[in-house]
Specification:
This is Integrase. The protein has 577 residues and is α+β, with helices and mostly antiparallel strands. Helix content is 48%, strand content 8%. A four-stranded mixed beta sheet has the order 11-14-13-12, with no helix packed on it. Strands 1-2-3 form a three-stranded antiparallel beta sheet, with helices on one face. A three-stranded antiparallel beta sheet has the order 6-7-8. It is elongated.
Length: 577
C-alpha cells in the first residue's frame, strides 16, 4: 500500500528471482556438493587480461556441476596455486600477457622454483593437470606440463600398536560420551512433545528449550542490535548454564566429537578422510533385515579412481556389539537431530557427518548455519587439544588400518595397496621375517622330499647293502631316524636319502616304479595320490631328467620280471616293517 492507502501499481512484467551464473566476467562462483559457496575474482591474478579471462573460463568449467570439482577445498587449493603462478609470472622479465606466452621454458622455471617434497610435487602436478588440458596452449607447453615427475617418497609410518590402541580408546570415549548425552536429551524431547511433563516445571522448560534447539539450532533467545543473541534467563537456569555443554551440545555433536567419530569410521572401514567427510547417510535396506538385524547400504565415492570406477557400495549388517554395523547404528542415532535440521533446509545435503559450529557466523560460513558438514582442515587440532594426543592424522591412521589390521586393500587396487601401504612399512617388514623364514624352511623341506638326493654311481660300492630301490652306504646312520639303530623308513624314501647309491642296475626297476606310480594317478583321486605317492614320483621324475631320455628309454626296455615283482611288493607295502 502507498502512504495514502492506495494499492501500488504492479510491474508490467512478472518478477523473476535473479539467478547468479557460475561465471560472470572475471568472477566465478563455486557451490560444492555440501552446499557451501565461494566466489573467486580473477582480476586479482597478476597476469594479462586475456590470461585472466582464460583462467576464469577454465576454472568455471571445473566448478560447474559435473565439471569434476565437488568440494570447496579443491577449488580453493587451485585458486591459491593460480595466485602463486600469477606472482611468479609478474616477476619475469617479460610477463606473459597471452596464452601463447606460457612457454615450455616459463613452465620449467616455475617447476624448478617449487619446494622439494610432497607439497612441491602436488603443486606442479595439480597446476599442470589443470592447464595442460586447455587447447589454447601450444603442444610443446602441454608436453612440458605432462612430463612425469619422480614420485616423492614419504617417511610416513604406521602407528605403533600402543599408539593405535590409545587413539582408539580416546575416540571411543569421546564418541560414547556424546552418544549417551544426545540419547538422553532426545528421549527428554520426545517425552516433552507427547506431554509427559507438567507445564511450567523444570523438565517442561528444558523440553521447550530442546524443542527450540531442534527446530532452530539455538535455545530460546532474543536478538540484540549488534546481531548477538541473548539467551532467555529462565531457560539458561533450567538447563544449568549457557555454555555449549548445557545448551546446544545436548542434541548435537561438536566439531571435535565429529572428528573422533570420523576416526572410528576410518578404523572400521579403512576409508580416507575425503570419503568419510562426504559419506552419505547409510540406509537400512527395506528387504535386507534378517531376524531383526538391520543391513545398511553404504554408498562410497572416491573421485581419484576416475569416471566409471569411483562409486562403490558396501552392505554392512548390525549383528551385535563391536561390529561395523553397530557403529553405523550408533552414528545414525548420534547425528539424527543435526541431520534432520540440515535436510529440512536442503534435502540434497543428506550427509552422515553433521555437527554444530561453536561460533556460527561469517568466519564459519555454512550453507545451513549453525551446522557444519564433513571434516574441516582444523578439526583434528581441536580434538587433539582436548585429549592431549598426537599423531591422529587420517592419512597415517588409514595406512595403519589397511596395512596392519584389515590387511586388505580398501578403495584402491591391490598393487597400490602393496606398493604404498604394505611394502614400505617397517612393522610389516619386521612381522614378515618369521613368515618368510617359515616359508623358506617349508620350501627347503619340500625340496628335500621332492628332489632326488641319492647319489648316482657307475657301479655298486664295497660294503653297501642292496634295497628294493637302491644301495645303502650307511644303513646304521639314517638321516630319517635315530643314529646307530638302523633305518626304519619306507624304501620309497631311499631316493630322498644322501646315503643311497643308484647305479645302472637300478635304472630299469626305478623306471618301472615311475611308470607304475603314474598309472596309479589315473586310478586314485589327485589329493589321495599326491599325499601317498606325489613326492616319490617327483624324485623319480628328477632322476629321469638327470639320466636323460635315451638312458630312461633303455631302462624301460630292460625291465625284468624280478623288477616287476619287487615294485609290486613295494607298492603293496610288503617291505614295510
Amino acid at each position: 500500500m502507498s502512504g495514502r492507502g492506495r494499492r501500488a501499481a504492479l510491474p508490467h512484467e512478472p518478477h523473476h528471482r535473479p539467478v547468479r551464473r557460475p561465471h560472470e566476467g572475471l568472477e566465478v562462483e563455486h557451490r560444492d556438493r555440501k552446499g557451501r559457496t565461494a566466489t573467486f575474482s580473477f582480476d586479482q591474478i597478476a597476469v594479462g587480461a586475456e590470461l585472466q579471462e582464460a583462467f576464469a573460463r577454465w576454472f568455471a568449467q571445473k566448478c560447474a556441476p559435473g565439471g569434476g570439482w565437488d568440494s570447496l577445498e579443491t577449488s580453493r587449493a587451485m585458486w591459491w596455486l593460480l595466485l602463486a603462478f600469477g606472482r611468479f609470472c609478474a616477476e619475469q622479465d617479460s610477463p606473459p600477457q597471452l596464452i601463447a606466452d606460457i612457454t615450455p621454458a616459463l613452465w620449467n622455471r616455475w617447476r624448478m622454483r617449487r619446494p622439494e617434497g610432497r607439497h612441491g610435487y602436488a603443486q606442479v602436478t595439480s597446476l599442470g593437470g589443470f592447464l595442460r588440458r586447455q587447447p589454447e596452449l601450444s603442444e610443446a607447453t602441454r608436453a612440458a606440463m605432462a612430463r612425469r615427475l619422480p614420485p616423492v617418497k614419504t617417511g610416513e609410518r604406521a602407528l605403533s600398536p600402543e599408539e593405535y590402541e590409545e587413539l582408539r580408546a580416546a575416540a571411543r570415549k569421546t564418541f560414547r560420551s556424546a552418544l549417551l548425552r544426545i540419547r538422553a536429551n532426545t528421549e527428554h524431547l520426545h517425552r516433552w512433545r507427547v506431554g509427559d511433563f507438567e507445564q511450567g516445571s523444570r523438565d517442561w522448560v528444558v523440553g521447550e528449550a530442546l524443542d527450540s534447539l531442534a527446530r532452530t539450532g539455538f535455545i530460546p533467545h532474543t536478538m540484540m542490535k549488534k546481531g548477538s543473541r541473548y539467551f532467555i534467563a529462565r531457560y539458561v537456569t533450567a538447563l544449568g548454564g549457557g555454555d555449549p555443554q548445557q545448551t546446544w551440545m545436548r542434541l548435537f555433536l561438536s566439531r571435535a566429537e565429529a572428528y573422533a567419530l570420523a576416526l572410528l569410521l576410518v578404523m572400521e572401514f579403512g576409508l580416507n578422510a575425503t570419503v568419510v567427510s562426504e559419506l552419505r547417510t547409510p540406509r537400512a535396506m527395506p528387504d535386507g533385515a534378517v531376524d531383526a538385524v538391520p543391513i545398511y547400504r553404504m554408498e562410497l565415492e572416491k573421485r581419484r579412481r576416475g569416471a566409471g570406477r569411483q562409486f562403490e557400495t558396501r552392505n554392512v549388517p548390525d549383528t551385535g556389539a563391536d561390529t561395523a554395523g553397530r557403529l553405523i547404528t550408533r552414528v545414525l542415532e548420534a547425528t539424527a537431530p543435526a541431520r534432520a535440521f540440515v535436510t529440512s533446509v536442503d534435502s540434497t545435503l543428506d550427509f552422515l557427518l553433521v555437527w554444530r559450529n561453536i561460533l556460527p557466523g561469517p568466519r564459519n560460513a555454512s550453507p545451513v548455519n549453525p551446522f557444519g558438514i564433513g571434516l574441516t582442515n582444523n578439526a583434528a587440532e581441536g580434538w587433539l587439544r582436548e585429549t592431549g594426543l598426537s599423531g591422529a592424522r587420517m592419512r597415517r591412521l588409514r595406512k595403519t588400518v589397511n596395512a596392519l589390521h584389515r590387511r586388505e586393500h580398501g578403495q584402491n587396487s591391490q598393487d597400490t595397496h602393496d606398493a604404498i601401504y604394505v611394502l614400505p612399512e617397517p612393522q610389516v617388514q619386521q612381522a614378515s621375517i618369521p613368515v618368510i623364514a617359515e616359508g623358506a624352511e617349508s620350501a627347503l623341506a619340500h625340496a628335500r622330499h621332492a628332489v632326488l638326493r641319492a647319489q648316482l654311481a657307475d657301479t655298486s660300492e664295497t660294503g653297501s647293502q642292496e634295497t628294493p630301490t637302491a644301495d645303502c652306504a650307511d644303513y646304521e646312520n639314517s638321516p630319517f631316524g635315530t643314529q646307530g639303530i638302523g633305518c626304519t623308513v619306507s624304501f620309497l624314501m631311499c631316493t630322498a636319502c644322501p646315503n643311497a647309491r643308484i647305479h645302472p642296475k637300478h635304472h630299469p626297476r626305478l623306471a618301472h616304479l615311475h611308470r607304475s606310480l603314474a598309472s596309479l594317478r589315473s586310478a586314485l583321486g589327485e589329493e589321495s595320490w599326491a599325499a601317498d605317492w606325489g613326492n616319490p614320483f617327483l624324485r623319480l621324475e628328477d632322476l629321469r631328467l638327470r639320466l636323460g631320455d635315451q638312458v630312461w628309454a633303455t631302462a624301460l626296455a630292460n625291465v625284468t620280471a624280478s623288477d616287476r615283482e619287487i615294485v609290486g611288493r613295494l607298492l603293496e607295502g610288503q617291505y614295510d616293517l
